[in-house]
Amino acid sequence: MARIIPILTLILAVVTARVAKSESPKEVLAQINKDSFGNSVLSVLQLQLATGGPVGEIQILLNNIASQLNGDQKKADKVHESDTVAFEKIIADLEQEIAYHQTQIVALSNLRDSTTEALGEAEAEVRVVTSDIANNEKSFADESATRQSQHETWVRKDAEHVDQMDAIDEASKIVQHLQAGVAFAQLKSRFEKVQAKLMESKHALFKPLINALTQLASKVDNKSIIKILELLAQIRQQLVASRASLLATEERQAANWEVQSGHLQEEHKRLVERKAFLENSIVQFKVTIQEAVEDLEDQTLFLEDAEDSLAIQERWAAEQESQYEAQTFEREQQLEVVERLQEVLTQKMSAASEFLQIREEVF
Fold this sequence. Notes:
363 residues, mainly alpha, 8 helices, signal
C-alpha cells in the first residue's frame, strides 16, 4: 500500500489537464495507462484485484490523496488570504502616500504660482513707490524753496516798512521842530537825509510827501507844516496797516507750510516704509518660490517612487494571484481525477472480474 500512494499521486498530476468528465471508464483507464507511472499503478491495482485484494483498500488510498489535496488547498487559501490582506494594506498605504504627494504637488504648484504673481506685483509696486518718493521729495524741495522765498520777501519788505516808518518818524520830528521855531538851517542835514531816504523808496505813497517837503525847504509856514504833519500821520498809518497785512500773510503762509510740509513728510515716511516692506516681501517671495520649487522637485520624486513601488506591488500581487489560481486549478483537476477514479472503482469496477475484464478489453 505504501508503494501505491506516491504512484497514484504522480499519476494524478500527470493526467490532471487531460481528463474530461465525459470520458467512459475505458477512456479514463486508457488515459492513465498512457503514462508509464499510470501503467505501473494500474498494473499494481490489477494485480491486487486479481489476487483478491479488496477494492475498499484502493478507495482508502484515493480518499487519503483527496484529503491531502484538500488540506493543501486549505493551507494555500489561508496563505492567500493572509497575503491578500497584507497586499491590500500595502496598496492602501501606497495609494494614501501617492494621494498625499499629489496633494502636496498641487499645493506647492499653487504656492509657487501665486507667490510668483505676488512677486511681480510687488516689484511693479516698488517701481511706482520709488517714483512716488522721488516726486514727494521734489515737491517738498520745490515747496520748501517757495516758502523760503516767501519768507525772505517778507523779511525784506518788513525791513523796508521799518525803514520807511523810521523815515516818517524822523520827518515828523523835523517838521515838529520847524513848527516849534527851530531854524531850517539847523535841521537841513537831517531833512536832506530823510528826503533822500524817502526818494530812494520810489513808493507812490511818498510822492505827495516828497513834494510837500521840497516846498517846505524853500518856504516854512505853519499851514504847510500842519498839512505835512497830517500827511505824515496818514502815511505812517498806511505803513503800519501794510506791515500788519504783510505779517498776517507771512504767518498764514508759515502755518500753511507747516501743515503742508507735515503732510509731505508723513507721506514720505509712509512711502519709505511701504518701499522697505515691499523690498522685504520681495526677498521673502523669492525665498518662498525657491523653496517651493525645491520641495516640488522632491515631492515629484517621492511620487514617482511611490508609483513605482505601487506598480511593483501590483505586479507581485498579480503573479501571486496567478500562481495561486494555477495551483488551485491544478488541485481541482487532481481532485476531479481522484473522484473519477473512485467513481470508476465504485460504479464500474465493483468486482475484481469486472476490473480485469475492462483491463483486458482496454489493454
